[in-house]
Design brief:
The complex is a heterodimer. By secondary structure, chain A is of the alpha/beta class. Chain A contains 24 helices and 8 strands. Chain A has 3 domains: 166 residues, Fumarate Reductase Iron-sulfur Protein, Chain B, domain 2; 150 residues, 3-Layer(aba) Sandwich (Rossmann fold); 125 residues, Rossmann fold (3-Layer(aba) Sandwich), CATH 3.40.50. In chain A, α17 packs across α19 and α20 crosses α22. Chain B has 2 domains: 216 residues, Fumarate Reductase Cytochrome B subunit; 36 residues, no CATH class. Chain B contains 13 helices and no strands. Chain B starts with a helix and ends with a helix. The chains are: A alpha/beta, B mainly alpha.
Amino acid sequence: MQIKVITGEEREKAFACPKPPEVIDKQKLPVRYHVEDFDVKDRPQRFLEAFAAILKHTNYRLALDHYIRVSAKCSRCTTNCQVYLATGDDDDIPCKRSELLLSVYRRHFTIAGVLKGRLTGNIGLTDEHIQEIADSFWNCTACRRCILECPMGIDHGMITHLGRYILSEIGITPRALVVSTREQLLGATGNTSAIPVPALIDTLEFLSEDMEEEKGIEIPFPIDQEGAEYLFLPAVSDFMMEADTLMGNAAVFRATGDSWTVGTGYYDGINYGLFYSDHVLEKVLLKIKAEAERLKIKKILIGECGHASRSAKFFYPAYCGGKNALPVINILEYTHQVWKEGRLKLDPNVITERVTYHDPCNIARPGWIVDQPRELLKAFCRDYVEMTPSGRDNICCGGGGGTVSIDEIRPYRTAIGGKAKAEQIRATGAKYCVAPCANCKKQLKELMEDNNVDCEIVGLHDLLYKAIIFEGAKNPVNEEEKVQDK
Amino acid sequence: MQAWIEFGQGPLFRLCFVLMILGLIRIFILTIIGMVEALNRNTDKIVPYRDLIQKTLMWLFPIKHLWTKRPFYGLISVLFHVGLLIVPLFLAAHVLMWKNSVGFAWFSIPRGLADWLTIIVIVTGIVLFLMRASSKAGRALSRKQDYIWPLLLVVPFITGYICSNSAIGPAAYQLMMMVHVYSANLIMLMIPFTKIAHCILVPLSQLVTAISWKFPAGAGDMVIETLGYKEYPTWVKKPRLETPVELKVKEEINAE
């Protein structure tokens, strides 16, 4: 992958600060995202206290000790970071970004570092260094593509995660994420988009009616069904923004007849904890656990959302019972499985336009969901093309790691974070780009708009909904026949 | 000078060698202990060993991976490592020395091969140094030890090559041998305390990362308890600093 470094003009636009200088002055935080006011006094000390507390109760010390010993600074990660390739700034090299935190660890939490600091009169962590970390760690999209290229096996994504966790404990976290999380954990609606239950039920009923009209068959959204096999948790924003995806999900279940349900106690898959705090991560997963227990669910089914899927799949066992935890699957896995079993029939003549597939980092990087959506798409899309690179080695949409929710940094996301992706999609010439992830969808839509690429961003189930065949119902109209009719 | 060389080849070599081995064993065991502790603390103890072994082997023998990105750098780097590992262990003269100092030894490689490998190490070591020094990203990342290591590592190879291949006078030979022996001892001594520790730690990297990603249950609560927050810390609760309006309200209440 070769992309051009941004020009000076683009850089100015991308890095323009949306905040008034007096706010930056007051918070002593020259970052481009909004942060709620918090103590500025003694920040280095509080940072170190938070760091120490986290090290005491978690396993990060193991990783940090290992990483400071093996890091060889070979600069191979430069070939894989789409942010560095776009900016060309040395500070954006994944290994250098990690060094910001590793140097603090080395100086304050290893014997050799403390001794060396005393001997050389190094005063240690300064507020300027914290400001640098706060700026740099939220420029990273946490896509973890750099780890594919690290011969030493250093996971820079984990260091970014840890750095943000420490920052969050001293009050430095993008306001957009904190506000959503506050509503999710302490608010009345209990979800990040603040959708109340009556509105949710209304939406689902409306969608059901809509589908019945279109397909001539009743397609329900089961609500609060005790003992159902699957508890369905999409990114909650889908209920407002991605109705087509939800309709596709419901249609698949209508076709297979498996029991599933949306729970009114908790219906949000989003977990910003994955981006900035283990504490939030755990609290949100415990909410899922409580809802699954209330409804006596057998499996947890996450909708089309990358980070929701990863946070549930890989951290649900960690917080909710280890081996005995409920299995977590993604809707793409489910749909692929039932299609393979022959329980889902798809019309290969409906989608005739060129389609390409964008791998959400959170589900593709671990090699978890890579082939399943491709097999599905190839089954019902006539003109399917791949991006290069793709699969486990995919390029991030540019809005990963929670940055997509920070509206004030949109210029950065679409000019730098997503630059490589925009070129990639443009090169395929596809009409539809399938992105089975709420975050990717939002980012890619903005990316297409800001970079003038003519491509419609859809979910996999959006397309599937058009092609699904129900026996005894109105089948989808063949597009070619439609043209001939005219 | 001969006595110094013999001291360097004998007692000092044994000391440095033992310190290197002990140092490496220490960090290896510390890492293993760390992993066991972490697994004990975790609720989720499932580790995907197969996938991890595959990834580890892929990096230990990066034959397939070498050509995808920066193939020249990959090739140079692999050649450097191969020579670096084989010559000190399997050169005939070294095998003899191993036998004399540690008591047992193994097979040796032919002289011609050893010479070629030595030249490869010298050339690739210098190329690696130049690549680091000439690339902007390399310079931005490098610490002192990153520049010193490739150069330090080729010193015993250069001197060793000269000693065994050129017809130099006895004085020059002794000087070269002296540099050869003492630089090699210095390298061994420094390995456990610098980035070269990766020689023993890299096989554990994937496992360390996988285990560290498994977070222990309840850690978040314990962290905020340690930090002295009551229930939820700042990222959920209202911030500790009061806004001007809140301050005004407070003042009014106090005044009443």
